[in-house]
Amino acid sequence: MIQNLLGMVNAFVEKYLYGFSIPRFNRIDFVEIIIISLLVYNILVWVKNTRAWVLLRGIIIIVIFCLIAALFQMSTILWIVGKTINVAVIAVVIVFQPELRRALESLGRKNFITSIFNFDSQKDQLRFSEKTVAEITKASLEMAKVKTGALIVVEQDMVLTEFERTGIMLDSLVSSQLLINIFEHNTPLHDGAVIIRGNRIVSATCYLPLSDNMGLSKDLGTRHRAAVGVSEVSDALVVVVSEETGNISAAIGGELFRNLDAENLKRKLGFIQNRSIDTDKFRLWRRRRKNGQKTDEASGK
Questions:
Q1: Alpha-helix residue ranges (DSSP H) falling in 211-256
Q2: pLDDT in tens, 173-212
Q3: What pTM did the predictor assign?
Q4: At a CB cut-off of 8 Å and minimum separation 6, what does 51 contact?
Q5: Would you give the end-to-end CA distance of the chain in angstroms?
Q6: Which class for 244: exposed (0-12), middle (13-18), buried (19 or more C-beta within 10 A)?
Q7: Are strands 255-257 and 200-206 parallel, antiparallel or unpaired?
Q8: What CA–CA distance (Å, rounded) separates 185 from 204?
Q9: Within a 10 A sphere around the Cβ of 67, how many other Cβ atoms?
Q10: What are 203's strand-pairing partners?
């Protein structure tokens, strides 16, 4: 019986593993694996923290579509892909040009020793403190009372460096007094948006892209369209105080939530406060909002 089993094993090896051998592995190969792993890791981190992630997802969809075309031998589509692949590569470089430039600048400033041994030990901590939530809420309410227009961008995972550079660098702790003073009429920093990263205001008077969403209400001004615009191209939460009505709104994921009170604003900030926030919470948030709208419509409000 043992001989028959050994014979079966030998037959399997000769039939399926003939010529197969484990490659020789030396110290140089080990170093190469480490270098390639670090390179791939840093590329993924860079892509995740920029708008390149959104663009990359679009490219992945196109690649999947091309693979399906190749699988089913769609000759016309494959011919078009073959003729346009060179142009597409150049187009990708042009589209990613700002991100590529910042990546190379970051590479030149990077401390490799720290990056190798720093495995984000604080990733379970809150993105910003409860004090920051309270200060943003307090400032928004105070500015709403006197109808002072404000545009506050609260950064999440996607770093907003390209918008941060359009403003004036501050790097100050978040406080309601500072936010109110920034947006006070006739002050040098009141025009534009402030960007908050963690517990610090990193920049003021920042320019934001305007949304071209035709579904937005016509009574919304440039400030609200800028809030929706930056929320469409990033994962940031944007708090808006209307200069005309004094109402507080928040934009995230390209959607605008209007007429918020203090409790609702704190709740919105709480959704993005924890680093482990998932999409299920955001979907629940949107579902509750829609249900609330239906309730208001039914009650005639």
A1: 222-233
A2: 999 999 999 999 888 888 889 999 989 999 999 999 888 8
A3: 0.59
A4: 99, 158, 162, 233, 234
A5: 84
A6: exposed
A7: unpaired
A8: 14
A9: 10
A10: 169, 195
